[in-house]
Amino acid sequence: MTARVSVGALAVGALIAAAATLAHAQATRTVQDGVFTTAQAARGQAVYGQQCASCHGAALQGVSGPPLQGDLFVSHWRSEPLSALLSKIRNTMPADTPGGLTPQQSADLVAHLLKSGGFPAGAAELASTDAAASRITWPARSAAAGAQAAATGSVRAPVGNLAQLMRGIFFPNANMIFTVQTHDPAAPAPKPSADAQANGFSWVDWGAGIYGGWQLVDNATIALADISPLMLNPELRCENGRAAPVTDPDWIKFTEQMITVSKQLYRVSQTRNQEAVSDATGDLTDACAACHQAYRDVRGRGAAPNPTDPQANASRCQSRR
């Protein structure tokens, strides 16, 4: 009886070990292990030509959107499971009709990107579910590459691109400061309207309600001053995938100008003088405009800038001075 129990226990143990080994193998699968088929990549190539090439280029080289192959592309996704890329495509692409792709089309597009990037095809298609793709990772960065980055003093790459930093930090904080021209920060904050209360949560009202008045202005000037040095990060990229021109003399000058102006605005804000801050916002306008005119605004002769024009994005981060 004892021997039988022991044999049974050993058999169960072997099965558990085998299952654990299989699960570990699945969990550590990488895009080097053939996670898509050639036929799937071909379907993805057709979808790409119809839905993606106008922004990312026929050869995935990047146009108004970033490139979708090469070291830059891989390094951006390396720390995430493949499901992150799949989710990005399925939920946010194409940019003009986000969510317009089916799960299968999204998986096929990922297969096309992998094949174009030199990763091998396999016998089974890439599944379109996040659960399956989350068990697939990218190849680890080699020790030699990591040592080289450390030796050269490489800085950590920003999570966002330049446009996202502008929209998420520079734009809202600059507008908080510009609002001093028409609203006295010392005045009592208006109570939310009945309609606003009935419509529920507003992140704008919530933020202003906690940090209001002059403290809101102080925080905005500090945010601009302290985030501006990131504009000189050699890893910073533009929305179109082009490296930010961090070594251009003009780019450096405009960045330093933004830091100086933001610090000055913070000092003026400490006076709690609406007129003084309102007057100082002219310098902030000049600092923003100088950089925009050289690196952002794309227009025909005599035309006003059109930041919503997707073709304008293709030329940004190249000096037009």
Quick structural gist:
The protein has helices at 2-27, 38-51, 53-56, 71-77, 82-92, 103-116, 130-133, 143-151, 162-178, 194-198, 203-210, 213-227, 249-269, 274-295, 310-313, and strands at 29-30, 136-137. It is an all-alpha fold.
Count of folded domains: 2
What portion of residues is helical?
55-70%
How would you describe the shape?
elongated
Distance between the termini: 90 Å
**Whole-number mean pLDDT:** 83
- In spatial order, strands of the major sheet run 1-2
Please state roughly what percent of the residues sit in beta strands, choosing from under 5%, 5-15%, 15-25%, 25-35%, 35-45% or over 45%: under 5%
Please state the structural category: mainly alpha
Radius of gyration, whole Å: 26 Å
- Spans where pLDDT lies below 50 across 5 or more residues: 1-7, 16-25
Q: What is the helix tally?
A: 15
Number of strands: 2
Main sheet overview: 2 strands, parallel
Order of helix and strand elements from N to C terminus: HEHHHHHHEHHHHHHHH
